């Protein structure tokens, strides 16, 4: 009965939102101008984790008109928001006390667990919460997402939202990197109750342009690690082929043209080419600075490898990619963009 009431409440919430003058099905550019007065269920948004991604995502929520409170262990990040007149809090628990919705964007599963269940975490006061919705946009393992979702579902709300008595959690990792976070064009992969996903679309569309509902709790996290696994393997394949081509006497720019007009075309060749001088505006054109750090790719491959082992899945490329990116980190390239695999693994030029 409780589950039905919660679903009915969330569907009612979604119906209320979509009946308002602004329509959330329109392309992203319209959202900033139309969300100047956010609907009441999202009036107070807490944001925890102000790194390269979270800082920009929170800033886009502010531009969209949401009332934000933020927390991070980095005092400089907090000061940047405080200087803009944004409320800052010293602990995750304090964020929860002033928020209807809490969004987290953190480096790892352990950080997420600590923010939720640690000494100063969102659940510090026990199983009674103010926020009706928790959204975790961190890239973590599906198992942690599912455990936290279950823990949140066992809590109660301080104040009912219609017939809804228990809070809800969505795992909603993102794709697109820092540039997309800055531009508000991220893609969100969302797991959790579909009714909550539908109700939360205005929030997602204030920070991104695409949302994909992936199914139940943990499925958003599963989609993200699979996406990054495919990205890592394709980067290795493109880098290996371009390096071989150069060794056989084919210029990398010429071979890239072949790839991009034939069956080898992929994101790693036509959008994020790893060979210096082939493409402007990508990390390989600036000594592999910026972009998606090798240590983060290694972390995501560790998540994929662990998940594969847990379900007994045969994933030989996963383990090979994991080893290559782990080696890159151990060789001192952990802060360089992951496309540096071309230079430091395949080309034999150990430049820094």
From TrEMBL:
Reaction catalysed by this enzyme = 3-hydroxy-2-methylpropanoate + NAD(+) = 2-methyl-3-oxopropanoate + NADH + H(+)
User: Pathway listed for it?
Assistant: Amino-acid degradation; L-valine degradation
Q: What is its EC number?
A: 1.1.1.31
What the entry lists under SUPFAM superfamilies is as follows: 6-phosphogluconate dehydrogenase C-terminal domain-like, NAD(P)-binding Rossmann-fold domains
Residue stretches making up the 6-phosphogluconate dehydrogenase NADP-binding domain: 44-215
Localization of this protein: Mitochondrion
What's an example Gene Ontology biological process for this entry?
A: L-valine catabolic process
Q: Locate the 3-hydroxyisobutyrate dehydrogenase-like NAD-binding domain: which residues?
A: 218-344
What residue range is the signal peptide? none
- Per the record, what is one GO cellular component? mitochondrion
PROSITE patterns assigned: 3_HYDROXYISOBUT_DH
Kindly state which keywords UniProt assigns to this record, in alphabetical order: Branched-chain amino acid catabolism, Mitochondrion, NAD, Oxidoreductase, Transit peptide
Family membership, please give it: Belongs to the HIBADH-related family. 3-hydroxyisobutyrate dehydrogenase subfamily.
Official protein name in the record: 3-hydroxyisobutyrate dehydrogenase
